[in-house]
């Protein structure tokens, strides 16, 4: 009973830790002989990602991260509006900013203390086959190595072509022509520490955008949209990079910690489950980063995959449960692609119609608050709601009204992530992650799983005589009123 996790970035690390926490032995494979902590990379971590990491023992990431609460949006030389992030009644902040390097360091420390995780560094995957199990061929400094496992989660990132080809998949989609220059700087910028700032067409980057995120230790991440063919080395050598930075921060000391140039993509695989291999994170989908939907969606992939693999390997569910991994997480990837593609069309209009629309929205937003919601600098990461999942039993009394307004959450219902609330037994999400959980009101039906009593009303809006069946990833699977329906809902939630 072993799962091979291929790739040891944050998604692979999270997957390995979640499996081990559920008692599944893991072989964690990574091509690099040692960790290279270079650059901030993914920095913006959403509340539900922090929740997963806290359950794994990495609550320090929330404490170390810089919590930002205000998103400011500018057009040219004036501020259009400031949006304060809602707290959603959780003890966790909506977002924290912390470098990916620090996240990896903390998760590596947890992995080192987990006896069920066998880390194989310096193992570059060269082939993969599925002759009744998963066979992973690797190249190492000491020659070829072969790893066998019952299943594999591929977290090999955007460059994971070897694994994708082996399972007959590729990342199909589009790449955007414009480039983005990213710099990590350290500077004293009073008043900017708790704010994300987005600039449309500022005088110091005319015709394009700039995004500024605060990070711990007086560090700031600045993203400039730059034209195709941009030459970073030439700009550094001629002093233009210094002028670019000073146009934002003024005449004050600063240090550049890291800089790089990226092209953004929207690309998806067709299948996220192929036999015994589950594709996760950037190995399965690529999104433009505006809205922070890359790493955060990858962690959601990892949690979805981990509880399902653990259930199958422990004999609690059949192989059919794994089909729901693709059904749920590919639908999430499609939604993320739609959201980020709409953002990129607003940031980088593709035709005259889009350019006119953007100009009209920005002009109206300067004088009409009703237009603020049309300004698209990236809808921030949020959970995907599994209301259409084959595992979810719909409740006609709680219909899903579709994607809620930006920053809002849908009312609790089947397919919705459980609110982050505490009952007498502890945090509901922590209790759920120990296995299927039934939340009961007086007179509610039983379902043959652990149960915790909850009050009528409350954060769930529970009604007398109801029981709420919750999955091990803290999503509501069903709301039950009839004892005869309890067994059916549980079978459905386990892929039966």
From TrEMBL:
Domain FAD-binding: 2-335
Residues forming coiled coils: none
GO biological process: 3-(3-hydroxy)phenylpropionate catabolic process
Low complexity composition-biased segments: 394-406
Entry's transmembrane regions: none
Gene3D superfamilies documented for this protein: 3.30.70.2450, 3.40.30.120, FAD/NAD(P)-binding domain (3.50.50.60)
GO molecular function: 3-(3-hydroxyphenyl)propionate hydroxylase activity; FAD binding
Region Disordered: start-end pairs: 391-414
Alphabetical UniProt keywords: Oxidoreductase
NCBIfam families: PRK08132.1
Name by which UniProt lists this protein: 3-(3-hydroxy-phenyl)propionate hydroxylase
Native source organism of the sequence: Amycolatopsis tolypomycina
